Amino acid sequence: MRPANPSDHRTQRARVARLLLGILALASTSAGIAAQEGYRSNFRFDIAGGFGRVAHETDGSATDGDTGGAFGRLRFEGVGDQGFGGGIRLEAWGSDDDLFVDEGFQAEEARASDLFAHFTYRFERGPFRMPARIGFMAHHYELENVASGVTTLEVDSFGPRFEVAPEYVFNRGDVVEFSVYGELGIAAAYSNVETSSFSNDFDSSSAFWFAEVGGRMRIEFAEFGLGFITHGIYTDESDTENGNFVRAFGADFAGVVFSAAIVF
User: Buried b vs exposed e over 78-100: b needs ≥16 C-beta within 10 Å?
Assistant: First the structure.
C-alpha cells in the first residue's frame, strides 16, 4: 500500500474549504436578495376603523349641517407574482344622531355604505409599488329622521370605480418595515333617489371621490396603519316626475383611520 501523501490531504482540505466557502457565498447572496425583495405582499386582508366629521349640504336649501361620525372597512385583495389579481371591499360611514340640529331642523342621521369588487394590476419596482384597481361599485346613502325613524332620503347608486394606491417602503427587507402610502379613487354612477316627501322614485347621477394618506408598519405578516381619509358623494338634481324633483346634494366623511392587516 502506497503511503498517504501529505500533499493529497492538503488538496482535499482545500477542496472542502472551497466548497464550504461556495455554500456560504450562495447563502449570503440568497439572503441579500431576500432582504432586497422584502416581505411578500401577494395577499391582504385588513380591517379599519376611524372617526371624524360628516357633512351634508343641499343645493338651494338651508338643509345643511355637520356633526361627528365614524368609518369602517373590510378588505381582501390577492395579486399574483405577475401583478394581476383582484379583490373585494366593504366600506361604511355614518354620522351622529344630531345632524341639522344646529341649523334649527329636526335631528337626522346620515349613513353611507358601498361594495366594491375590482380587478387589480400592481406595478412594482424596488421599494415602490402602486396597485391600480378598476371595477364595479354599489353605493347606498340615506338620511333618517331620528324622532320618527322615517328614512327621509335614500339614494342607491351603481357604476364603475377606479383608483390608484402608491406606496413607498423606506427600509425594505428589515425585520420591521415602514412605508408611506396614498389612495385616490373616483367613481361615476346612475342613482335611484327616493324621498319621504314624494311617492315616486327619481332618476339622477352621482359622482364619488375617495382619498387616503398615511403610514404603515409591518412585522412579518402583521401590518398596522394610521392615516387620514375622506369619502364623498355629490348627487345631481333629479329628473322631474309629476312636477316634482329632488334637489342636488353633497355629503362626505373626513377623519382619522386606523387599520390592522394580515399580509403574506
Answer: ebeeeeebbbebebbbbbbeebb
Determine the residue type at 190: Y
For the chain, give every domain's residue range: 1-37, 43-263
Q: Tell which residue, 129, 36, 51, has the closest CA to residue 85.
A: 129
Say if residues 237 and 246 touch (Cβ distance below 8 Å). Answer: yes
pLDDT at residue 205, as a whole number: 98
pTM assigned to the model = 0.83
What is the pLDDT, as a whole number, of residue 153? 96
CATH 2.40.128.100 for domain 43-263: yes
Q: Quick one: what percent of the chain has pLDDT higher than 70?
A: 86
**Burial of 174 (C-beta count, 10 Å sphere; 0-12/13-18/19+):** middle
- For residue 39, pLDDT over 90 is answered with no
As a whole number, mean pLDDT of residues 8-16 equals 57
Dist. CA 133–CA 119, nearest whole Å: 6
Helix H or strand E encompassing 14? helix 6-37
